[in-house]
């Protein structure tokens, strides 16, 4: 295999890992989802609101963090676009989520950008997730809650 073919195969595997992440997350299949990650993987949320950790490390912590997601959001991820990078193990993707916040019945529509690094086995080692916490807060806040209340959310472990 040439270096160019090797890079193309690594890029395809890395993009597949991210696409599988989205598919399994939307399906609520946390036990399968966590297998996409290296044992010491990091999931990072630079804009995490109060109640959501900014950094989750390791498979056990990842499962604990995502365990309530299937009861919190019913979503599908659409309009996935990958942006080519020089490093074939680095994936940058834009996508949208469309769905519902299950506790409130409110729409949950989000635009995301993810920066994902994978290892030689196409396992995710670092997932940097840029999403708007205000969208999640609004979707998870019941209509009868006054606007001056504490707007923290909990949907992670």
TrEMBL record:
Please state what the protein is called.
Putative PhzA/B-like protein
* Pfam families, sorted: SnoaL_2
Q: Which InterPro entries does the entry mention?
A: NTF2-like_dom_sf, SnoaL-like
Residue span, SnoaL-like domain: 20-126
**Source species, domain of life:** Bacteria
């Amino acid at each position: 295999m040439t270096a160019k073919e090797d890079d193309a195969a690594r890029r395809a595997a890395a993009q597949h890992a991210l696409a599988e992440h989205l598919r399994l997350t939307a399906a609520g299949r946390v036990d399968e989802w966590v297998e996409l990650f290296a044992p010491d993987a990091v999931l990072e949320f630079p804009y995490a609101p109060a109640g959501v950790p900014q950094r989750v490390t390791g498979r056990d912590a990842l499962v604990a963090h995502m365990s309530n997601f299937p009861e919190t959001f019913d979503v599908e991820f659409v309009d996935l676009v990958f942006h080519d990078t020089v490093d074939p193990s680095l994936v940058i993707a834009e996508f949208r989520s469309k769905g519902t916040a299950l506790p409130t019945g409110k729409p949950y529509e989000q635009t995301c950008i993810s920066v994902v690094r994978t290892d030689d086995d196409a396992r995710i080692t670092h997932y940097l997730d840029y999403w708007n916490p205000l969208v999640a807060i609004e979707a998870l806040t019941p209509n009868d809650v006054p606007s001056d209340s504490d707007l923290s959310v909990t949907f992670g472990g």
